[in-house]
Amino acid sequence: MTATPTTLVWFRDDLRLADNAALSWAAERGPVVGLFVHETVGRPLGGAAAWWLRRSLENFRASFPAPLIELSGDPRDIVPRLARELGAEVTWNRRYHRNEVDAPIKEATGAVSHPGYLLTEPWEVRTSAGRPYRVFTPFHKAVQSSLLDAPPTPLPAPDIIPAEVEPVTADRPPEPTWTATLAAHNTPGEQAAHTQLDRFLGALADEGTYDNDALDGVTSGLSAHLRFGEISPDYVWHRAAAAGTWAFLRQLVWRDFAWHRFYHLPDMATRNVRAQFDRFPWEWTPGDVPGDLAAWQSGRTGVPLVDAGMRELWATGRMHNRVRMVAGSWLTKNLGIHWRHGEEWFWDTLVDADAASNAFNWQWVAGSGDDAAPYFRVFNPLTQAEKFDPRGNYVRRWVPEANTPLYPEPMVDIKESRRTALAAYDGIRTG
């Protein structure tokens, strides 16, 4: 009689039991052992995301009914070696970057992969000409149509037979002191993710509408949970579609769009998508922090809505989506600082920072990316505050000294800096 094989499930951005295709596949085959690798190749996590990951892993380990091996190093060495030592087959849910890591491991181990953390696979959604979409509206129409025709069917948490393997916990580096405030605003973990989805859908039922822009409106609070795979986008779509929250689901498709573009443009975090912006005179100082950038980072620009957003980010690891756009526009267009400085700061300070969305959204707001906001759309932070924070509650919470003699004047004149930005754009269009 042949012994039932052990399956090694390599967890990456999928720290959950429910609707986890790789885990369900492994559980059907026999004993399961989990693996998580703190990878020493590729871009390191920012401080806030690393803070979230540590707690997400702790929650996952406490609920995972099988041994979890947690190691640090290069997965190209770790995964094949561990598979040989355990005599185990390997499976994982796909990720859509770091193919230089995953491809050789798959070749060495014969790993079985499953759809990952998106609603749709980047190679499956194409234009009628067979090309990847570069504009969101037709992409959204195609994805929504596909999901309406074949709705996601989330999997329940499987019954797991634990392999007879000793669990391992990796040594973790100390956390930056500035992350100490994050715990008051964030609760990582699969259970917290489902609780937050229930809370969000309940609030929508009470409010009746979803407004992604209103600073006092209902927001999902799911971004970081999705980022670390504590809840699957298929499950969120399944629940939200049943509730008819189509405006929210459009934001979920936007997340897919960012990853599809990143899949095809893997250097998006460092290279302008639109080559004409290589000539744009942004201030860019690798490894240095210009004075204006430091003021922006710390919420001391003299622009209340921008400063409120940057202080919210520092304290909570989060920033409202509307304010992210305004803060990004102020940095790249009014201050004339390269979007890469903003992308790097958000990478370090956002709990939901991921490789695709962070780079894609920064290029969108800077005007240098696919389907970007037109460069001449320069968000006026004063009128944006009047429109989306009409009672001033958001600004008062984070910038209580605004509108008092203690608060400084804006670093640059809003109208004059806009004219300067548009003149620079005219220069690269005609130069």
Automatic annotation (TrEMBL):
Cofactor list: FAD
Cofactor binding note from Swiss-Prot or TrEMBL: Binds 1 FAD per subunit.
GO biological process: nucleobase-containing compound metabolic process; response to light stimulus; response to stress
GO MF terms held by the record: deoxyribodipyrimidine photo-lyase activity; DNA binding; FAD binding
UniProt: FAD binding residues: 219-223, 248, 352-354
Keyword annotations: Chromophore, FAD, Flavoprotein, Lyase
Domain Photolyase/cryptochrome alpha/beta: from-to ranges: 5-119
InterPro entries: Crypto/Photolyase_FAD-like_sf, Crypto/Photolyase_N_sf, Cryptochr/Photolyase_FAD-bd, Cryptochrome/DNA_photolyase_1, DNA_photolyase_1_CS_C, DNA_photolyase_N, Rossmann-like_a/b/a_fold
Positions marked as site (Electron transfer via tryptophanyl radical): 282, 339, 362
PROSITE patterns, per the entry: DNA_PHOTOLYASES_1_1, PHR_CRY_ALPHA_BETA
Family: Belongs to the DNA photolyase family.
Protein name (database record): Deoxyribodipyrimidine photo-lyase
Protein source organism: Corynebacterium qintianiae
Higher taxonomy: Bacteria, Bacillati, Actinomycetota, Actinomycetes, Mycobacteriales
